[in-house]
Amino acid sequence: MKRILFLAFSLISFAASAAVAPKSSPDGAPAVKLTATQIVDRNVAARGGLEAWRAVSTLTLSGRLEAGGKKNTELPFVMKMKRSHMSRLEINFQDQTAVQVYDGTQGWKVRPFLGRDDAEPFTPAEAKAAAAWEELDGPLIDYAKKGTRVELAGTEAVEGRNAYKLKLTMKNGEVRNIWIDGARFLEVKMDGEPRKMDGKLRNVAIYFRDYKSVNGLTVPHLVETVVEKDKQAHKMTIERVAVNQPMEGALFAKPQLATMAKVSSQQAEQRP
C-alpha cells in the first residue's frame, strides 16, 4: 500500500500539455543548452501554463494497479485529490475496499485484505512522503513558493530519449531528481522512494508514458515503478481523468468504518 500511495501521489505531479521544442543532437544530449530556470519555464508552459494549473482545484484518476504476485492481479482504483494537500485513494480487491486518506496534515489507512479493519494513522515515513509529494500541480509549478530549489544536474538518455536531469531540494531538505524530455519538455522519469529489500535499501525509479490530452492538459496514462537493481516493475494504468469535480471536505477525513462496510456491501449486491 505504501508503494501504491507513493505511485498515485507522484502521478499527479506529471499532468502536462504537449510542447513544441527544439531538435535533439545525435550525441545523446539536447541540442539547446538551457538553464534550470529555462527548463522549468518550458515545462510549465508545456503543461498548460501557470494560470491553467492554478484554476485546477480537484483531480480524479481511475484505472488499474498491478498487485504483483504470480498471477499479477490488476486491482481497480480511484484516486481523488483536492487543494490543498488532500487526497483519497480507494483500491478494490475481492469485494473489499482499502482506503488511504490525507487531509493535508494527517493521514489514515484501512487495509481489510491484510486483515486490518481499523483506521490506522500514517507512519511518520508515510506522512512525510505525503506532505512532500502530494502536490496537485506537481513540484515544478510555483516551485519557489513551495520552498523548492531546482538545479540542472546534467543531461542523460532515458529510454532512448534525450533528457535534462533536474535536482530538486525540497523545503524539508529532501532531494529528488526529475528527468525532463529534451524535445517535448514532459517528465519522463523521477526518483521514487527507496525500498528496503533483503535488508538493503534499493533505488526506485518512476517512469511516465502514454501521454494523452484531457481538458487541454496532457496526462501520462501509464506509470511504472521499477526497483532498479532487482528490475522489479509495477504498472499503473490510468483509464479516466476528471478535472474539477466537486469534492466535499469530509471525503478526506478519517474513514468511518461502518459507512465503508455499508458501501462495500452495496457494491457487492450490484455486481452481476
Structural features, described:
It is a single chain. This protein has 272 residues and is α+β, with helices and mostly antiparallel strands. It has one domain (2-263): Lipoprotein localisation LolA/LolB/LppX (outer membrane lipoprotein receptor (LolB), chain A, Clam), CATH 2.50.20. The chain has five helices and 15 strands. The protein has helices at residues 2-12, 36-46, 50-54, 124-133, 257-270, and strands at 58-66, 74-82, 86-93, 96-102, 107-111, 116-121, 149-158, 161-169, 175-181, 187-191, 195-197, 200-202, 204-214, 217-227, 232-243. The strands form two sheets. The protein has a 13-stranded antiparallel beta sheet, sandwiched between helices. Helix 1 runs parallel beside helix 4 (124-133). The radius of gyration is 19 Å and the shape is globular. The two termini are 28 Å apart. 34% of the residues are buried. The model is unreliable at 1-28 and 259-272 (pLDDT under 50). Keywords: Signal. It comes from Sulfurimicrobium lacus. This is Outer membrane lipoprotein-sorting protein. Residues 1-18 form the signal peptide.
